[in-house]
Structure formats: structure tokens, C-alpha cells
Specification:
Elements: H1 7-21, H2 26-29, E1 37-47, E2 50-62, E3 68-69, E4 72-74, H3 80-96, E5 102-108, H4 117-131, E6 140-141, H5 150-164, H6 188-203, E7 212-216, H7 220-231, E8 235-241, E9 244-247, H8 254-264, E10 274-276, H9 278-282, E11 288-291, H10 300-303, E12 310-312, H11 321-329, E13 333-335, H12 337-340, H13 343-357, H14 363-389, H15 393-411
Parallel strand pairs: 3-5, 3-6, 4-5, 7-8, 7-11, 11-12, 12-13
Antiparallel strand pairs: 1-2, 2-5, 8-9, 9-10
Helix pairs in contact: 1-3, 1-15, 3-15, 4-5, 6-7, 6-13, 6-14, 13-14, 14-15
Bound molecules: glutamic acid.
Length: 415
């Protein structure tokens, strides 16, 4: 389904274009065209499928604003170009949300669905032994991403703590509550996305109760998002996962669908809905489209067929650079990943603070803080860029983040 487009090249093209538009000097953005540190590891693990040489990556893209932060992905398509792109986007995302972090990302190239729980524990602990000198609560703080779970974060934190001979909960976020995780973290990406959508609907005077939404991807972000929408009485007409999608014009029963997914492992064959492919879902006649799966879902090939008025990017990098321009010409508002899915890292930041202070915050406190940070980030881009410079939200987000990182690089005397 995903077209082979190099997401890193795509991201650097955007960087250059935004810099030109906002008169940011070429010599100033040079530092942002290169990841600062890359660690690549290949390590043997005796799994239930025999000896496997696992390859993994951690890229610390830019650390001008603070220790680097970003998730770890377990997916068969993980490669260095993808991790470079994802780490660059993390640097921008953390800047857009005014978090005291640089950006990083990592991953290993495996399909975790093919391994047992014991295998995944071995692989995850060994990965930490490989990268432990490269990470730390004041250096680089990993977190979950595609196909990595709170359980995996717990093993990793435990392994790191054993190596150091002390408890270090702040080395990783997205942990289970029992070992220093934070309330809200499990649904924070979806909740942050919902806050951004709510603000956008208000600005564009769209009544949420009169909208139809399609969600591509039914993992942590997509599923929680559907549940939040249901809680607000908003209509979801289509959802999909890697195996296919389902569509009902009158709205899907989300509670029953979540149960179906949990029972069968997929949304496919959900009763009282028509089957749709992942590509068909993107082109449905809906008001809101939520890509919540992987990169390059919307490309030049299908951007012309998109009918939604608003696209909320819960995935990282779902819209290519060329597709973005086509959507802009069609007056489709794209709420970009580095704003729309930043709720995850924002609550990771809250988790990290709680860990550093040995504190526990309530769900209510966290939701309030998350809401106000997401709203502030949205308002900043809308008020200072979208309406002032007549640009789309992604250009706005890039411009704000790039300027902020460059200012810090200058103040540090790096450029
Ligand atoms: N993987 C998530 C993202 O792409 C969360 C990162 C984090 O919590 O550090 O934003």
C-alpha cells in the first residue's frame, strides 16, 4: 500500500522550502540537514525461531533544545532513512509544543507479531544493552511507537536500571503505571489529536456533530481516537487496519468494533458494515480523515481524490510533500503530525517530570495540562503564521520549530 518514497528526502525538501519562504539563511539551516548522532547495531538473539541477527537504530537528530526524545518502532520496514526522518520530525514536534527536548527516534527491523513474548523480552533487553551508553534521562529518552508497548518499555527500563545498578525510571516513558508510567499516556496521542481537531473545527466553524470521519489505522492512536470521538457523539463511518477496512455511512458502533478487533485481531468482517480497502477508505466522502497508520498513505497518486475537508495526521508522515501541495490547492486543511500527534510526547514529558521528582499526578491534572499545551500550540501556529503569512499548518509548524531550534543553536555558539 505504501509507495516507496524516501521520507527523509521529502522532509529535507520541505525544510528548504520553508526556510526560503521565511527568509531563513541557508547557512543557518545547514545544521538541520544532518542528524547529529547515529547508532546502528546488529546483535544476535537466540529466539524460538532460532538464532537471529537483529538490526536496530537510534538517531539523535538535534539536541539544541534539550536531551533528545522520541519513540522506538518495531516494524519489518524500519530502515535508516525512515528513522532519520522520524527523528527529524521529533525535533520539530518537541519544538512546536515548547517541550525542553531535542528529537530522536529508533527502531528495530522485525515483525513483532512473528515472535513470542519471551523472544520480544530477550530482543528488547539486548537492544538496551547495545544502546545503553547512548541513552539516559538527561541524554536521550525513548518511548513507544509503532508496535511497541508499555510492557516493552518496562523491560527496557528494568534492563537499563540493572546495568546502572539503581532505579532510573526517567530513562524511558510510556511505561506501565506499576513501574512509574503516567496516567493518560496510553491514550494521550489520540487525546492530543482530538484537542487539535476541536480547535480547528471551531476556527473553521464546522459543527462537530454534523461531521463524518474515517480513520485509517486501528492501533493505539486510531482506536483510542475512535473511542474519544464516540464519547463526544461524533460519527465515525469507516476504520481500517493493516488487513483491510469497514464502512457504514450511518456510523459504526465503535464499542462493538473495538470488541470485534480484540476478539479477532482485525476490524475486517465486522457485521453491519461494508468492506473497504485502505486506499478506498482514504477517498470516501467524509468531512474528517484521520491517517493513523504509517508514512506515505496520501501521495500524488491519490491526493486528487481526497474528499475530506480536514485531515488530522495521527500517524507520522502520512502525507508526502507533493501531496501536501495538492491538498492545499484543494483547500483541504491538513493538521500536521508534528502538531496533531504531539499529545503522546507531551504526556511522555509529564511522565518524565513525575519520574525525576518521584511524583504522581492525577488524571484530571494531566488532562488539563495536556489540553492547555495542545491548544496553546495550535493557537500559536494559527494566530502567528496561518493567518499572518497565509500558509498551511505544516509550513507554520516547520517555520516556528526551525526558528526556535536555530535560535538555540546560535545561543549555544554552534552556528
Ligand atoms: N512515538 C511517539 C511520537 O512519535 C511518542 C514519542 C515520545 O513519547 O517520546 O511522537
Amino acid at each position: 500500500m505504501t509507495e516507496k518514497i524516501n521520507p527523509y528526502e521529502d522532509a529535507l525538501n520541505r525544510l528548504s522550502e520553508v526556510a526560503e519562504k521565511f527568509n531563513i539563511a541557508e547557512k543557518d539551516i545547514e545544521i538541520l540537514k544532518h542528524p547529529k548522532k547515529i547508532l546502528m547495531v546488529n546483535f544476535p538473539v537466540h529466539t524460538s525461531k532460532g538464532l537471529k541477527i537483529i538490526n536496530g537504530y537510534r538517531v539523535q537528530y538535534n539536541d539544541a533544545l534539550g536531551p533528545t526524545k522520541g519513540g522506538l518502532r518495531y516494524h519489518p520496514h524500519v530502515d535508516i532513512e525512515e528513522v532519520k526522518a522520524l527523528s527529524f520530525w521529533m525535533a520539530l514536534k518537541n519544538a512546536v509544543l515548547d517541550l525542553p527536548y531535542g528529537g530522536a527516534k529508533g527502531g528495530i527491523t522485525i515483525d513483532p507479531r512473528e515472535y513470542t513474548k519471551e523472544d520480544l523480552e530477550k530482543i528488547s533487553r539486548e537492544f538496551i544493552r547495545q544502546i545503553h551508553l547512548f541513552i539516559g534521562p538527561q541524554i536521550d529518552i525513548p518511548a513507544p511507537d509503532v508496535y511497541t508497548t508499555p510492557q516493552i518499555m518496562a523491560w527496557m527500563m528494568d534492563e537499563y536500571s540493572k546495568i546502572k545498578g539503581k532505579h532510573v525510571p526517567g530513562v524511558i516513558t510510556g511505561k506501565p503505571l506499576s513501574v512509574g508510567g503516567s496516567l493518560v499516556r496510553s491514550y494521550s496521542t489520540a487525546m492530543g489529536g482530538f484537542c487539535v481537531l476541536r480547535e480547528a473545527l471551531a476556527k473553521y466553524k464546522i459543527n462537530p456533530l454534523e461531521t463524518k470521519t474515517a480513520v485509517q489505522g486501528f492501533g493505539n492512536a486510531g482506536m483510542n481516537f475512535a473511542e474519544i470521538m464516540k464519547g463526544q457523539n461524533m460519527k465515525i463511518v469507516a476504520v481500517s487496519d493493516s488487513k483491510g477496512g469497514v464502512y457504514n455511512e450511518e456510523g459504526l458502533n465503535i464499542e462493538a468494533l473495538v470488541k470485534h478487533k480484540k476478539d479477532t485481531g482485525t476490524v475486517v468482517d465486522f457485521p453491519s458494515a461494508k468492506a473497504v480497502t485502505n486506499n478506498e477508505l482514504l477517498e470516501l466522502n467524509v468531512d474528517i480523515l484521520v491517517p493513523a497508520a504509517l508514512e506515505n498513505a496520501i501521495t500524488e497518486a491519490n491526493a486528487g481524490n481526497i474528499k475530506a475537508k480536514i485531515i488530522l495526521e495521527l500517524a507520522n508522515g502520512p502525507v508526502t510533500h507533493k501531496a501536501d501541495k495538492m491538498l492545499y490547492e484543494k483547500n483541504i486543511v491538513v493538521l500536521p503530525d508534528i502538531l496533531a500527534n504531539a499529545g503522546g510526547v507531551t504526556v511522555s514529558y509529564f511522565e518524565w517530570i513525575q519520574n525525576l521528582y518521584g511524583d504522581r499526578w492525577t488524571e484530571e491534572e494531566i488532562l488539563k495540562k495536556l489540553d492547555s499545551r495542545m491548544k496553546k500550540a495550535f493557537d500559536n501556529l494559527y494566530d502567528n503564521y496561518v493567518t499572518q503569512s497565509y500558509v498551511d499548518f505544516r509550513t507554520a509548524a516547520y517555520a516556528y520549530a526551525i526558528k526556535k531550534i536555530i535560535e538555540a543553536e546560535k545561543d549555544r555558539g554552534h552556528i
